[in-house]
Amino acid sequence: MSFLYSFLRPFAACLQHTLIPTKYDHAERLKGLEPPYILIANHQSLLDPVPVAYPVKKYEVSFLGKKEINSNRLVKWFVTTLHMIPVDRGNTDMEAMRACMKVLRGGGILGIFPEGTRNRGGLMEHIESGVSLIALRGGAPLIPMYIEGKYAPFHRVRVHVGEPIPMDDLRADGVNSDTAARLNERITETYRRLAEEAAKGIA
């Protein structure tokens, strides 16, 4: 972990145990998992990286983020120090793709919000195609995390950690637009199921 990342973890712990209490379902699915792997989550707030990264105790998570964040010099220094990978949303960003592959091949962890932007509705309505290409090319497990609830002072948020999304059959068919589209469908279906289980109170 970088010094800044390690320095911020106690603040994240304080946030999750006091102001925004966070409960994890099946966090044990991450405990025995060794990198490389990819964490994906629905995206509703700028705070989302905190509950996604917090249960990963020993390693730093490198998140993809929109390159517009880098327009402010102070913010750019902050996210660069935290190893954020800037990406040009809506375009094929080969530099970002190479940076993601470097993280995975170096035994790291990627954090991705597949919609590419915030969606306060909770369910994934549109998934950027590059996400599935990264997952298929990276050869690493794809772990879904579903963030349930809105961020508000002293209002509990639940994070559901799902089983790895199967991809071996898709990789066997080759990495192309067809297999990427099929993986997008699996991601969408996974989040639909996680949302339904959350609504029924199924941990």
The count of helical stretches stands at 8
Strand order of the largest sheet: 1-7-6-2-5-3-4
Total DSSP E strands:
7
Helix-strand topology string: HEHEHEHEHEHEEHH
Supply the number of structural domains: 1
Plain-language structure description:
By secondary structure, the protein is α/β, with parallel strands linked by helices. It has a single domain, classed as Glycerol-3-phosphate (1)-acyltransferase (3-Layer(aba) Sandwich), CATH 3.40.1130. The chain is built from eight helices and seven strands; from the N terminus they run H-E-H-E-H-E-H-E-H-E-H-E-E-H-H. It has helices spanning 3-19, 28-31, 49-53, 73-81, 94-105, 129-138, 168-172, 177-199; strands spanning 22-25, 37-41, 61-66, 85-87, 109-112, 142-148, 157-161. A seven-stranded mixed beta sheet has the order 1-7-6-2-5-3-4. The model has no long low-confidence stretch (mean pLDDT 89).
